[in-house]
Amino acid sequence: MWVEQRFKWSQLNGCSSLPVSCSPLSAPPPAGDPAPAGGAAGGQSYLQAKQLRPGDDPYRDHAFNLQESERLGGGRDIRDTRHYRNNGVSLNYDTDLPSTSIIITFHNEARSTLLRTIKSVLLRSPPSLIREIILIDDFSSDPEDCQLLTAVPKVHCLRNSRREGLIRSRVRGADSASASVLTFLDSHCEVNSAWLQPLLQRVKQDHTRVVSPIIDVISLDNFAYLAASADLRGGFDWSLHFRWEQIPLEQKMARSDPTQPIRTPVIAGGIFVMDKNWFNHLGQYDTHMDIWGGENFELSFRVWMCGGSLEILPCSRVGHVFRKRHPYDFPEGNALTYIRNTRRAAEVWMDEYKQYYYSARPSAQGKAFGSIAERLALRRRLNCRPFRWYMENVYPELRVPEQDAVSSLLKQGRLCLETRGDGLGLAECRVNGGHRPQTQVRTAPPGG
């Protein structure tokens, strides 16, 4: 149920009336629509209730400069970083685009960044396209961080009774959403001009598309809004470490229009739009993953291999604060949680190619990752393609590591009888310098 406690926006804002403050990047709300959160005071009473104290380290609690974030307050104007062709004149979007439920999960987020995220959505989106903004408070220390924001039009608050992490919190938000399209945002974002229409347009045209904006950079030090390159897509290495990479040259040469969608093997995972029925049909998230990390690979593999596609849209821009460390604790530690999550993704989706994951991340061997029976059953039920198809058709640029000419004939304990040239010998079982996956029996490289 939605949090029933509500506050008058005048109380939250510290003023008796709400003058509508319109950003130059957005049109004022039409008559009859609720005014967006803002006004002259910019939500000052909400912000002032929890501010950095003199002498405190501004980076300690949130891994970004809280002092600078609080100086900006609840909202600001940002530069339109789209290509000049996205001038609003040459682009035509359907007049009957579906509305969306915005889902934002957070744990002990700074009030200033959380409020700016919400206000940017309300100020820079057509009101008719925002059905609701669902905040999932993942058991933050102060429940009022979320509850007070229910005074803002269209904002609802759900609070977890214990720490669940991003993955399970997003599933809870999606289950509560009333719109046919889901938009997932991080809690330290600022959406840019006309960001939402191109995302909804692509999903409306094909409900199996999962689309992401270009993610601009908000400096963690001075909160400058910096334009990201429009020639990047998501990629990864065999340890399942996400990286931004240049669009392959042949794809770049084939793009006659720099505003055309970019096919991407994986998405970063923090910001994307997806049809709700498609999200449910594909199995939502793997809720046995913990806290954060690896869920973007699992979702990306599943979307591509089970009949969908992933795109980055240059016509949509959203700024994001990229931090150098996690400001919150992982119950089992950051490294172990990431290994657990990525191992689940590898075991369910990567087939024989998972041996390269274990070679690149040997510390994953022997680490617990829970039962994957339900996810394997989901894959069979959806009749998903093999990972070999993904490698050949989606991400052929990911090179398969070369292997030594070694063929294991017999295994006893941790030793394998191996052939090397003309001789035989016992040696520790291995794959490409790492340890053999416990569930891996194939020794020849894929395609060999």
From TrEMBL:
It is found in: Golgi apparatus membrane. Its cofactor is Mn(2+). Residues 101-274 form the Glycosyltransferase 2-like domain. It catalyses: L-threonyl-[protein] + UDP-N-acetyl-alpha-D-galactosamine = a 3-O-[N-acetyl-alpha-D-galactosaminyl]-L-threonyl-[protein] + UDP + H(+); L-seryl-[protein] + UDP-N-acetyl-alpha-D-galactosamine = a 3-O-[N-acetyl-alpha-D-galactosaminyl]-L-seryl-[protein] + UDP + H(+). It comes from the Eukaryota. Transmembrane segments: none annotated. GO terms for cellular component: Golgi membrane. It is an enzyme of class 2 (transferase). InterPro entries: GalNAc-T, Glyco_trans_2-like, Nucleotide-diphossugar_trans. Pfam families: Glycos_transf_2. One of its GO terms (molecular function) is metal ion binding. Keywords: Disulfide bond, Glycosyltransferase, Golgi apparatus, Lectin, Manganese, Membrane, Metal-binding, Signal-anchor, Transferase, Transmembrane, Transmembrane helix. One of its GO terms (biological process) is protein O-linked glycosylation. It is a single-pass type II membrane protein. Its EC number is 2.4.1.41. Pathway: Protein modification; protein glycosylation. Belongs to the glycosyltransferase 2 family. GalNAc-T subfamily. PANTHER family: N-ACETYLGALACTOSAMINYLTRANSFERASE, POLYPEPTIDE N-ACETYLGALACTOSAMINYLTRANSFERASE 16. This is polypeptide N-acetylgalactosaminyltransferase. It comes from Salarias fasciatus (Jewelled blenny).
